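Handout for the seminar on molecular recognition.
Each group receives one record of this type.
Step one: identify the two inputs.
Step two: read the structure output and locate the region that could contact zinc ion.
Step three: write two sentences on what you found, then compare them with the reference statements printed after the record.
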Amino acid sequence: MFNVNNVVNFQDTYECLVVGLYDKPDKFSGSLSNLDELFQGQLTELVKSGDISAKKKSVSKIHTFEKIGTKRLFFVGLGKEKEASFEILREAFGKVFKEIQSAKLEEVAVYLDSFTSETIEALDATHALGEALPLATYEFEGYKQKSNEPKKEIEKVIVLTEQDEEEIQAALTVGYVYGKGTNSARTLVNTPGNLLTATDMANYAQELGDKYGFEVEILEKEDMLKLGMGALLAVNQGSAEPPKMIVLKYQGKEEWKDVIGLVGKGITFDTGGYSIKPKDGIVGMKSDMGGAAAVLGAMEIIGELQPEQNVVAVIPSTDNMVSGTAFKPDDVITSMSGKTIEVLNTDAEGRLVLADAVTYAKHHGANYLVDIATLTGGVIVALGTETTGALTNDEAWFEQVLEASYEAGEPIWRLPLFENDIERVRSSKIADLNNSPGREGHAIMGGAFVGEFAEGTPWVHLDIAGTATTNKTTDMGPAGATGVMTRTLALLVERFEGMES
Ligand code: BES
Ligand code: ZN
Ligand code: ZN
């Protein structure tokens, strides 16, 4: 996919060449003066006439009429040099790759050194490039009968740079792996519930495990009965599909300590159960396994990059259905932890399956927990569709998650979790907990409930109900699943600093 070429020669022949352009008085200074000279200053003229723009994320395409080796030049505007950021670069690369893909060009050369600045180092620009390519050009194939037009993919990217070849190649690969992992999560979320059952998800995880050498454990219904996983079993009670508790273990350290537990909600379809969803609210509920997808996407990245960390991924998976055998409001169930739960709303099923999964992650030695879930409509009301909601019981652990999310460009915002919030999930008159203490602050209630099972273990809860899907096409991908938090989780693992050792 990527070739790094240390000899920057504009006379080499490529299908197209991508050049970054910062908005500064002399746009073709430094490394680009050479290029403008080959055009006898005509590029500067084209800037003056507005045919080439340095405006942030603008793309100007010009034909070179054989003045240089390549046929087409794509100028990518990067805006003011001082305001440059990793995010702007990633989106700029995304935008130009999308244009190149729609122009059906299969080979592209990128003049990397035109993208660096005082604030953007070459390796960051390289990571942005590697990540943007798969993210921006992602498409969910879907199930339409063959269209006439065969899809053209960008197959080869030649990176022209005077930087160290090996380092650039490595950064390209890492960026690409992050983008690919996110795309895998997107595809899982885009896949409808009839084609991605809990069994399918378990098979997918097994294949991932086989590929990367993870230890895989798939608990069946009988195992869950033995272990007393009454919460996951209750949600599955109305389903014709068997539930799965999926566990992947990655050991990158000599000893099984400082273990990060990634727990992802894997509801393959959420009807709401007897607290059934209205006809408008039910459409789209195939995405209720967005947390599981992010965890699996992150495990793919971890498998590729093999960091020196220990990770246990736990995914409770089932659909939430209605039938004569389904669980009901007013039921009282017993979770694996022994805590009893009064079910007031069968649509608050995510926290139930996560309860047993968090307990099971601890059982596997997790010392630091992140649970990630499309948990509440409440988080969408609170934070909208571009910010993931977070809760925690541990400042230092939250700080690590926040930094990873910042670096990944996936914003999260913390909601409060006070003693009186916790009181509300403990307010059942007949059981230890209740799964739905009412509408007020219900994004907090969802997380607070899961936190009861983390107990003293450092824990962060990420509610991606608003961010797992989007109805907007952006420079970073099409409408549909976003694969949100895949990169944050993988970065969290890569950068993790244990507090035990
Ligand atoms: N899967 C939903 C949350 C959701 C809503 C995800 C919208 C994506 C988009 C979850 O299981 C749910 O139904 N939550 C309820 C909880 C309530 C009953 C306490 C909700 O948010 O309405
Ligand atoms: Zn629900
Ligand atoms: Zn749900």
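Reference statements: The mean pLDDT is 96. The two ends are 39 Å apart (CA to CA).
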